Fold this protein.
Amino acid sequence: MSHPADLEQRIKALAPWFHNIELNGIQTAPDHFLGDYPSFKWKGFRHLVPEDLRGRTVLDIGCNGGFYSLEMKRRRADLVVGVDSDPRCLAQARLAAEASGLDISFRQLSVYEIGALRQRFDFVIFMGVLYHLRHPLLALDLIHEHVVGDQLLCQSMLRGNTHVPEVASNYPFEEQAIFEQEGYPRMVFIEHNYAEDPTNWWVPNRSGMEAMLRSAGFRIVGQTDDEVYLCHREERPAMVEPPPRISFDA
Ligand SMILES: C[S@@+](CC[C@H](N)C(=O)[O-])C[C@H]1O[C@@H](n2cnc3c(N)ncnc32)[C@H](O)[C@@H]1O
């Protein structure tokens, strides 16, 4: 690894970092607006992730600066692959892995092209990406169809009512009050900006998130008080059509 001064230069050259990662004593984003992100978030849900990932493969979709990919390799996963659509994030992630002496493969790929990996993974991480997508349910469908072999760890920003009501499998056409019911599954479309970020497109409430996960074929087996879900892959509900085939270069 580079001399500390060189490393500091390389970290600075890739700024700004969204992930604060300590590399040889140097923090990549010491002034992060969320604090020590994502370390503080990770502390809240790391108990959901197996301590020992030996014998397992991991895919980190929307890996950003690589924080979770690094943690998965530290838990000794046999293979960790991180993908992101943003090449600068991938350059950060590669530097973080190199400086940490961890063997992780990073690829530039959109979640919509995830089938190009042509591989299922035992443990798939999909944290903080869903609400940045114009087609969030398509992304969950593609993730189910192509890459999750066993478990999915998913997080989305959630807003609105946190109550999760019982929802019937059908209502008559005349029923309208249900749409006003506290906690009825919902996702809000943001045409312009939220938190000064024009890439925040869709924000579900809690029951909306859970309904989408189930509908895409994921059974929720663990969750935290905030926004993180651990799911097992199962067959998609019978009435749900498979996602469209999206062509991509292998
Ligand atoms: C809010 S960050 C979350 C990063 C990390 N997963 C976490 O939880 O800290 C969203 C990440 O998703 C990536 N992203 C956005 N759209 C994507 C897409 N269509 N396919 C893959 N990655 C995408 C962004 O480049 C960014 O790195």
Remarks:
- The chain has a mean pLDDT of 95.
- Helices lie at 4-13, 39-45, 67-74, 87-100, 136-146, 206-215.
- Residues 53-161+171-233 form a domain with the Rossmann fold fold (CATH 3.40.50.150).
